[in-house]
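Minutes, project huddle
Topic: does the predicted pose make sense with ISE bound?
PN asked that the exact inputs be recorded in the minutes so nobody has to dig through chat later. Recorded below.
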Amino acid sequence: MTLRVGVIGTGMIGADHVTRLTTAVVGATVTAVFDVVTERARQVAASSGAASSPSWEALVAADDVDAVVIASPGPLHPDQAIACIAAGKPVLCEKPLATTTTDAERVLVAEQAAGRRFVQLGFMRRYDAGYLDVKTAMTDGVIGVPLLAHAIHRNATVPDFFRGEMSLTDSLVHEFDIFRWLFGAEIAAVTVLPVTTSPLAADGMRDPQVTVLQMAGGEVVTVESFVNCQYGYDVRCEIVGSLGTVSLDNPRTTIVITAGRRSEVVPADWQDRFAPAYTRELQSWVDGLAAGRVTGPSAWDGYAATAVAEAAVRSYREGRRIDVALVDRPPLYPLRP
Ligand code: NAD
Ligand code: ISE
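Predicted holo structure (tokens), as shared on screen:
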């Protein structure tokens, strides 16, 4: 049976998800889209064969929508996800689940009241071949006991609406999630260290920054974020274990060697770097729903990443280490599903 999907928000990633669902994913079709910028929704609808819904509420309620993708701005995600749960429709919600823990907890409460999982978070790195290899190297013992990690998260530039703390709440949520997943543990404390600000940083933005994560198991992760590094999109990490290390590099496409120099292409942006991961994420979501299951990153994962982001913002403002406080983990979200 073909899954009929409605997509809320047809901006950068929403439009990409529509294209992927329409052209690359097996077992799904996009039947409805909505965006407050009506013309944007109309264009995406026209190119995909979907209908343009009059509102996101109408899209969620539509009889020909079995499941929903939320790709609107972060603050809207909780209400839209809760509406999907209330309508009994599974939802792939782009990160972040919410921009405050209070809002994220509302989603947890709604899902628990429904008694089963409806929400999968858009933490697509968990579907990236490189990160999957890193996870295998950490769990099969090849690097011994994982002790610490170093990561970098650089964007060439970010959109104009990206301000102040969004490198923590919008970009680094991926790092918060991936290191929870890689180490199989929650993040216990976070410290954000200011660095000399780039002369090219947007007004009022502290960029770059270094964030130190202390995992509940005692491991430490240092993460550099630099969201206006100019030269390209660069996401890498190295895990240091008691017997060796495993590193995630940019995927190699071509290497040019000439005139005494060796050079390779750096991905332009997240669309380029993580394209295969987004497709695998959507395919896995569609396949899971066909089998009656929601299996990917959960609302709990979204909540935990938001809680770390909230603590990181406090650390940024107060200039000190902040412990991450989580509510008790409900049985709906087992520790290692
Ligand atoms: P964007 O600004 O390009 O798109 C957001 C769209 O939502 C816009 O077209 C906007 O008009 C629309 N919108 C605004 N209010 C709306 C409403 N009430 N209902 C429906 N649509 C509404 O931003 P984007 O980069 O596409 O980001 C969208 C979301 O996806 C964000 O939460 C972002 O963090 C996330 N994202 C995730 C990844 C990833 O790697 N997983 C990458 C990019 C963006
Ligand atoms: C963007 O919204 C994403 O989610 C990308 O994956 C991330 O790397 C980027 O920093 C964000 O702006």
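Observations noted during the meeting:
- The longest strand covers residues 146-154.
- The radius of gyration is 20 Å.
No decisions taken; revisit at the next huddle.
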